[in-house]
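agent> fetching stored inputs for the fe (ii) ion docking request
agent> found them:
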Amino acid sequence: MDGLTTPPRHIESGLRPATHLRDEHEQLERLLSQLSEYTDSCDAGRLQETWSKLENCLSSHLQTEEQQLLPSFLASNPDEVRSILTEHRRIRELVAELGVAVDLHTARKDAVLRLVRLLREHAPAEDRSLYGWLRQGR
Ligand SMILES: [Fe+2]
Ligand SMILES: [Fe+2]
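agent> prediction call returned; pasting tokens
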């Protein structure tokens, strides 16, 4: 996909970008709550299903930010972009670790809660920086 000629997914959908991305943060939060619940209940089928939804949603969200927004944000906010990319890398590392655990039926609640904490720290910081910039119309 060519980021220069193809409109970002959220623009194609006709939604305001910052609003759409915040909605995705809320959707991710709901999926993490469900995941945490299913980790406790030992319901392997629901845990796997919820994990797949979370993984897809999160992967697509991070990719949209990195491919369609951060390149433009970089010129005026290099430190913020570095910080966001570092957090994305930590999130992906934990997602990869948890994905293996879910497949092996060894997912533990403390690992899920680490991901919850990581995303809860990441979301408001990003909302202030990257999404704030988007709301200003770039
Ligand atoms: Fe992000
Ligand atoms: Fe985000």
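agent> quick read of the result: DSSP finds six helices and no strands in the chain.
agent> awaiting further instructions
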